[in-house]
Amino acid sequence: MTxxxxxxDHGPEHGRPGYPGPGGPGYGDFDEKRAExxxxxxxxxxxxxxxxxxxxxxxxxxxxxxxxxxxxxRQRPEDVLTTTFDLGHDEMVLVKDIEVLSTxxxxxxPFVGSAHVGYIPSHDGKITGLSKLxxxxxxxxxxxxxxxxxxxxxxxxxxxxxxxxxxxxxxxxEHMCMTMRGVRKPGxxxxxxxxxxxxxxxxxxAEAMSLIKAR
Length: 215
Ligand SMILES: Nc1nc2c(ncn2[C@@H]2O[C@H](COP(=O)(O)OP(=O)(O)OP(=O)(O)O)[C@@H](O)[C@H]2O)c(=O)[nH]1
Ligand SMILES: [Zn+2]
Description:
Layout (H helix, E strand, L loop, with lengths): L31 H14 L12 H12 L7 H4 L2 E3 L7 E12 L5 E11 L5 E3 L1 H12 L2 E2 L1 H16 L3 E10 L14 E8 L4 H12 L2
Parallel strand pairs: 2-5
Antiparallel strand pairs: 1-4, 2-3, 3-6, 6-7
């Protein structure tokens, strides 16, 4: 996969010499051996014996798991968001309750919850399959993330690829870094939203929000 295929949407670290991105190693490449030895080191660091029976295969297993959990680093939104045309529909399309399984980039523990993704198709009726909206959520969720960036990346890539009249993305998640450790507040939900184009109009936005809230 070439560096040029990816947009520099991961913040300033990307593309620094020696790091993935333009001018660095292949952006998104997964180095399984390096991941394995890092997990082995981590086990030693926490006071475990990586050579005891139960842990022998753990570094390789964790490396494979990380490859899967961060598979979105090797995917582009345009790989999943295929488009088609349907002139017949120019009203809002909203897919609710898309499961979000992501990883907090601060602590590398999960944050989980739901995404609600809606758009108003372009005047020429450019649309996408409903499942593709869920696939798009996964492309960005399967990376080291913060919830705010996850939300805006989904909204911005939809705007770019579907060229819709408007987009709304609302995400509600529970962060394990606030549950398992640190402040330890199970049940606290973080809500983020990104609204673009005509969905910024108060009435349209209110309609979308009432559809999202309706159970
Ligand atoms: N804005 C934002 N913050 C997040 C997200 N995930 C985790 N955090 C926060 O990132 C912050 C990191 O804060 P630090 O003070 O550097 O780290 P820390 O000492 O481990 O913080 P505590 O979690 O408060 O113990 C914490 O407040 C987390 O709750 C996210 O998706 N968005
Ligand atoms: Zn965290």
